[in-house]
Structure formats: C-alpha cells, structure tokens
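User: Once you have settled down, look closely at the record that follows, taking as long as you need, and be ready to discuss the fold:
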Amino acid sequence: MAARKHSRQRELIKEFLAGRKDHPTADIVYMNVRRQNPNISLGTVYRNLTLLVEDGEINRLRVGDGVDHFDADTSPHYHFVCSHCGNIIDLNVENAESIVKAAAAHFDGQITSHVATFYGICGNCLLHNHNL
C-alpha cells in the first residue's frame, strides 16, 4: 500500500490518543481534538480513526457496549472492562502467548492473532461501592 499523505488532523488524533490510557470513543477524541482545531468535523475524526486502524497505528476495541473505543498502544496486551463503571483497563499478562499455544493444540490451522477481553468489577468500584 502506498504511504498516505500527511494529515495534520490525523497527527492531532494520534497525539491525543498517545497520551491516553482510558481507550476513548470517537466522540471523546472529537471533543478534545476540536480544542486544538475548531474546524475539524466529527466525520473527519471518524475517517482518520479508521485510516489509523487500517494502517495499524492504533487499535479499535469493541467491548460490547455498542461503541468503538481506540487504543494507541498496539503492543500485545489484553483488556479488562468493568461491568459497573465501564472503564477499560490495560492488562499486561505474562506468558500471554500460552493461550495461543493452548488454542493451537486443538486447531489444525495457523493462528495469526487473537483478542481476549476480561470482564468484571474493577478495584475502584469494589472499594467505593460496598454493596457490589
């Protein structure tokens, strides 16, 4: 694929996502990038997020809440979704490749990637909501 033309809007989006660990939605990206570029449209943000995902520069997360979330950390890692507050938290699991080996032992093809998302109640919700 040919290299894409440089885009200031795409750079602003990447810069915003690079400083985040909370896996924002496109609407959150839009509201924040608009502070630096008031003329940017929501459609432009969506198009550029899609291009960044296609180019492998960011990841799109679908965690079951009906909204896409975006992650600038493209290194192999898992996610935890709190079913109480909705926060998405990075999980860096040691020996994560063991799940691929376990799956491959029961599959006659070639596994090239995988996605795993864990769900439950985060520590903050457990601490502050004693009736959970």
About this structure: The longest helix spans residues 42-54. The chain is about 35% helix and 15% strand. Helices lie at 8-18, 26-33, 42-54, 97-104, 123-128. The first strand starts at residue 59 and ends at 62.
